[in-house]
Amino acid sequence: MKVLQFTIPVAPDRTIIVQEDHMEHFYPYLHRHKEAQLIWIKEGEGTLVVDNNMHAFRKNDIYLLGANQPHLFKSNPEYFEEGSDLKIQALMIFFDPNGKLAPILALPEMQLLHSFLQQKQNGYKIPTAHTESIIQRMLSVQYAKNQEVIIKFLDLLQTLYQIGNQGETLSTAKMASFSESEGIRIGNIFNYLMQHYERQISLDEVAAEAHMTPQAFCRYFKKHTRQTFVSFLNELRINEACKKLTSGKFENIATVVYTCGFNSVTNFNRVFKSVKGEAPKTYLNQYFKNLKV
After folding, report:
1. What is the pTM of this model?
2. Rounded to the nearest 5°, which phi and psi values hold at 170?
3. CA-based diameter of the chain, in Å?
4. Strands 88-95, 53-57: pairing kind
5. What's the burial of 106, exposed, middle or buried (CB within 10 Å: 0-12/13-18/19+)?
6. What H or E segment, with its residue span, contains residue 209?
7. How far is CA 165 from CA 103, 160, 226, in A?
8. Residue 32: its pLDDT value, please?
9. How many other CB atoms are found less than 10 A from the CB of residue 283?
10. Closest by Cα among 282, 238, 279, 231 to 260
11. Per residue of the chain (293 residues), what is the pLDDT tens digit?
């Protein structure tokens, strides 16, 4: 049996750790690490869970994740199908603002960059207009040697700072701090919901999966995720619906509704508006309008 960890150690042999992954799918378990992480999705599609928020990720998306921020990159279901030839590629840069970098960030001249990293602990997505610039600087860090790694990294950090608040914040609220075992338990709940969202899931069913009574499960889930079970499941289903709606593979909205666990178009429209703040058709029109820009 594979031994899972919630806090994943990152190789500490360098101040700036660059890692490039080429795999069948992303690591499918909720986890955290003490390092902040800048990740460029070179190839792949799926759902990013950050704390208790969800975002659809696609090729060439770039995200900055905060230190010790629980997250999960879940590849789409087709990546797990037997015989699938789909692959993911990602370039990641890990750095610990409170570790070996701390003395550099503590310099008076680094105050703005240090404050920037503190402000972005909830993570954020790099705006599409700036992805090419960030990609070039990430590659510069990847191929740098010796002291140039630090120089190129600071240039990357400066560019991120200049982008400022243009990026989309990934998490509106941090999850409560919890132990390793609780992190694994919550991750298992998240995975169960992500694997079965397309059908009706009762509170009794998911509580039994977590080995709790329904009442205890509701308290546990709200305490640790700061979100109710129903609101999390609704956000998950709407996130999946958005991916399907924007894929161009479905003829109409009604077709998507019943593949995401909703029992009526009326209920879907109501939940969609409560999660996204707008109607499905408005969301779609704006999405495809932005693609043409």
Report:
1. 0.89
2. -85, -30
3. 59
4. unpaired
5. exposed
6. helix 203-209
7. 26, 10, 25
8. 93
9. 19
10. 238
11. 455 688 888 877 789 999 999 999 999 899 999 999 999 999 999 999 999 899 999 999 999 999 999 999 999 989 999 889 999 999 999 999 999 999 999 999 999 999 999 999 999 999 999 999 999 999 999 999 999 999 999 999 999 999 977 888 999 878 888 889 999 999 999 999 999 999 999 999 999 999 999 999 999 999 999 999 999 999 999 999 999 988 877 767 888 999 999 999 999 999 999 999 999 999 988 888 777 65
CB 237 within 8 A of CB 260: yes
Instruction: Give the three-state DSSP class for 10.
Output: coil
CB-based contact 88:75 (threshold 8 Å) = yes
- CB count in 10 Å sphere of residue 161: 15
Neighbours of 149 (CB within 10 A): 18
Say which DSSP state 31 is in: B
pLDDT of residue 3: 54
DSSP secondary structure code for residue 153 in this structure: H
Contact 138, 93 (CB under 8 A): yes
Q: Provide the strand spans (E) within the chain.
A: 16-23, 36-43, 46-50, 53-57, 62-65, 71-75, 88-95, 124-125, 168-169
**Kind of pairing between the strands at 88-95 and 62-65:** unpaired
pLDDT confidence of residue 265 = 94
Which two structure tokens, joined as six digits, stand for 106? 């503590």
Residue 64 near residue 120 (C-beta atoms within 8 A) = yes
Give the number of other CB atoms < 10 A from CB of residue 10. 16
Half-sphere exposure of residue 20: CA atoms within 13 angstroms, side-chain side? 7
CA dihedral (214, 69, 74, 252) positive or negative: positive
Residues 6+ apart with CB under 8 A from 80: 25
